[in-house]
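Researcher: Let's do a round of design. I'm pasting the structure tokens now; please hold your answer until I've finished.
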């Protein structure tokens, strides 16, 4: 990564200076340091770096100034890689950043302590890769599970519902799964109950169950 030009934006002086020293020793060229978003944008426009490392929360309000600056940088200098550092796994902010394209990353500040991993992250982002902190991945998976209406179903019930979505009758499902029609009927009743579908005629409830299945895919 010799010659990769980097700008650091972090209002914690000790962390910023520590990162600058680390990058200098590792072959990067730190061409600027900022302690707030406005200074960061000025430096980026003046130096046009290859990579920007920015804290998500910066003065004056310590909300999402770093993320806002990253958005501007992506618009004005799309070739620059951007790594956003955060103290917490903030899913909404991270997804907004990651949706902006390649050459971006979202990392918890605690990961910086693993020097080899941190340097590898910077290299991958500078080369156009996308890096997501493992803690954020876990948060996204958990959120998906919480939001998945089919999570309450067993694997067999999911199979039955998938076959219902194909338009198969209970008899057809029974033949497909090599079970009795009575067993399929029990699964269907369980599916309709678990999905909390309103008490209406069974045919209509089956349609609602299929709609729920399709929307969750």
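Researcher: That's everything. Go ahead.
Model: Designed sequence:
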């Amino acid at each position: 990564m010799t010659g990769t030009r980097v700008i650091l934006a972090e209002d914690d002086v000790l962390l910023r200076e520590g990162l600058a020293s680390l990058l200098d020793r590792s072959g990067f060229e730190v061409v600027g340091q900022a302690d707030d978003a406005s200074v960061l944008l000025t430096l980026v426009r003046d130096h046009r770096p290859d990579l920007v490392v920015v804290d998500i929360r910066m003065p004056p309000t310590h909300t999402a100034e770093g993320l806002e600056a990253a958005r501007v940088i992506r618009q004005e200098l799309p070739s620059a890689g951007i790594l956003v550092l955060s103290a917490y796994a903030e899913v909404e902010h991270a997804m907004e950043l990651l949706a902006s394209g390649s050459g971006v990353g979202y990392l918890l500040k605690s990961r910086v302590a693993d020097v080899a991993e941190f340097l590898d992250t910077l290299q991958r982002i500078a080369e156009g890769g996308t890096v997501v902190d493992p803690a954020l991945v876990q948060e996204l998976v958990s959120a998906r599970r919480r939001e998945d209406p089919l999570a309450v179903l067993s694997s067999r019930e999911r199979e039955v519902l998938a076959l219902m979505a194909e338009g198969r009758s209970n008899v057809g499902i029974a033949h497909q799964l090599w079970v009795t029609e009575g067993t399929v009927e029990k699964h269907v009743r369980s599916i309709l109950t678990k999905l909390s579908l309103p008490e209406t005629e069974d045919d209509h409830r089956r349609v609602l169950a299929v709609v729920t299945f399709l929307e969750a895919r």
